[in-house]
Structure formats: structure tokens, C-alpha cells
């Protein structure tokens, strides 16, 4: 059996250590569960989109786990398409790649192909086109392995056909393109982070998993109503050939920090651009 652990939204920084106390219990729990691979589904950092020191510090923390780790970027790691203050660009992507490795990747584990996608480039530009071409080739070349995607933003909140949810999920146009690929290649698992919630649904043959955050929770004043529960934790994938057991689990020792209490310290409001 091969064990993969998904963690998400740790939001670590050497200068803004509001959620730092949750790293040690998370690292201990990971060591106790002896994974063969750890997947971080984004927002590793508080602000590597602008702070090189955040990227370097968090890369060291991930390396300290002593097991193979791969990551996909979150909005706080590389910015995002259309953001007026932190647009995803070559500089930010290069910073992520220097410290954390490729922003898209694949790993073959027994009868499964695990594919990491950069959701922060969706919505325009040559990076998105290159990723789409790469993704289709990765699935076409899977040699019969079952397919699972790992990304930061979920494809949708309530429905694959929903309107634009803004900050919270992939926008409708790139979502439609991904859903077309998902259905064509029968992707069985789509695991994401970003929402700081613990939730899973099965729809049209695909198991959608919202991996819980390990850093902090988001209260009702800062997030719209959505499914699942505001709980910290991690996800364990036990793979045996083509079989897989997926379980979202609590992590003992994590403190329920709420970003609502410190948001103006951690993410100060920026002046609107003229």
C-alpha cells in the first residue's frame, strides 16, 4: 500500500507567525502516519507572491518533513489572474518554482496517476495554454492508470454550471474547458484547498474533495455560505493498486485560529489603484 497525505493552506511566514503554532503538530501527525508522498494544495505561505523570504522559509519547513513533497501554488504563493495588486506573472511563478519545484507535475503511484495543476493561471495567457496542452498529454499517456487532480481553487462551489463565484472558485470559461477534459478522460478525483473547509461530494463519477486548511479557519463574515464544515485537518489517500481509500481526518493539536480576528494584520487592506 502507498500512502499519500494532502495538506493545504498552512499560511506560514518567518515574519507573520500568527498560525505558526499549527505547523509542529501537523508535522508530528504526518510523521506518525508515515506517508510515501505529501501533496500541498496551495497557500503554503502568507505572502510568497511578494516576499522571497516567505517562500524560502516555507520551502525549508516542507523539506523538514523528511518525505517527498510536491505542491501546487495558491493565490498567496503566486498571485492570480486579474488581481490588481498581485497578478500572476513570470517573476512570481519563477519564485515558486525555485523554492517549491514545478507548479504542475504528475506522479504515478500504483494504478493511479496523480496530477498537480496550477489553478492561479486559469483565465488567460500563454501559461494556461501550455498547461492545458501538458494536461491533456499527461492524461492521454496515463496507460490505463486511474486519474486524480490536485489543485488550489476548486472547480466550483455548488454546481459545475454555476455562475462566476469571484474569489472562491475557477471562473466559468476555464472551468468548462477543464470539465470537458475531466469527462473525456474520466478523472475520478479532484482534490483542492483554498476554501478552508472540510467537504466532499460525488458527482457524475468524480469524487470532489475540499482538503481542509491546516493554518486557520474563515468565518461567515469573510466567506459566503457554502457546503462542508469549518474544520482544520488533512486528507489521507491509501492506494493499493487501482483501489484507493480517501479519508478527511482531524489533526490533533491544531488550534482553531480564525482569520477574521487578525485579517488586518496578516493581509492589510491595500489602497485601490487609480
From TrEMBL:
PANTHER family to which the protein is assigned, alphabetical: METALLOPHOSPHOESTERASE, CALCINEURIN SUPERFAMILY (PTHR43143), SERINE_THREONINE-PROTEIN PHOSPHATASE CPPED1 (PTHR43143:SF1)
InterPro entries: Calcineurin-like_PHP, Metallo-depent_PP-like, STPP_CPPED1
Name of protein: Calcineurin-like phosphoesterase
Organism: Bradyrhizobium shewense
SUPFAM superfamilies (UniProt xref): Metallo-dependent phosphatases (SSF56300)
Gene Ontology molecular function: hydrolase activity
Residue ranges of domain Calcineurin-like phosphoesterase in the record: 3-197
Gene3D superfamilies, A to Z: 3.60.21.10
Amino acid at each position: 500500500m502507498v500512502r499519500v497525505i494532502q495538506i493545504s493552506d498552512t499560511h506560514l511566514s518567518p515574519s507573520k507567525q500568527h498560525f505558526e503554532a499549527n505547523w509542529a503538530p501537523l508535522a508530528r501527525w504526518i510523521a506518525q502516519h508515515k506517508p510515501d508522498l505529501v501533496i500541498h494544495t496551495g497557500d503554503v505561505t502568507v505572502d510568497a507572491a511578494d516576499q522571497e523570504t516567505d517562500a524560502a522559509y516555507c520551502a525549508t519547513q516542507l523539506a523538514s518533513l523528511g518525505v517527498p513533497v510536491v505542491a501546487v501554488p495558491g493565490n498567496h504563493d503566486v498571485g492570480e489572474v486579474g488581481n490588481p495588486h498581485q497578478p500572476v506573472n513570470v517573476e512570481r511563478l519563477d519564485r515558486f518554482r525555485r523554492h517549491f519545484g514545478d507548479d504542475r507535475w504528475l506522479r504515478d503511484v500504483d494504478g493511479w496517476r496523480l496530477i498537480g495543476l496550477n489553478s492561479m493561471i486559469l483565465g488567460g495567457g500563454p501559461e494556461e495554454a501550455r498547461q492545458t496542452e501538458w494536461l491533456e498529454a499527461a492524461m492521454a499517456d496515463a496507460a490505463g492508470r486511474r486519474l486524480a487532480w490536485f489543485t488550489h481553487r476548486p472547480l466550483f462551489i455548488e454546481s459545475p454550471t454555476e455562475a462566476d463565484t469571484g474569489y472562491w472558485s475557477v471562473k466559468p470559461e476555464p472551468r468548462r474547458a477543464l470539465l470537458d477534459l475531466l469527462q473525456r478522460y474520466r478523472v475520478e478525483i479532484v482534490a483542492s484547498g483554498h476554501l478552508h473547509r472540510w467537504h466532499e461530494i460525488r458527482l457524475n463519477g468524480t469524487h470532489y474533495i475540499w482538503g481542509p486548511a491546516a493554518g486557520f479557519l474563515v468565518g461567515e463574515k469573510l466567506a459566503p455560505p457554502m457546503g462542508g464544515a469549518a474544520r482544520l485537518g488533512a486528507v489521507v489517500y491509501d492506494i493499493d493498486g487501482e483501489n484507493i481509500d480517501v479519508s478527511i481526518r482531524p489533526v490533533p493539536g491544531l488550534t482553531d485560529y480564525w482569520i477574521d480576528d487578525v485579517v488586518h494584520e496578516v493581509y492589510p487592506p491595500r489602497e485601490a489603484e487609480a
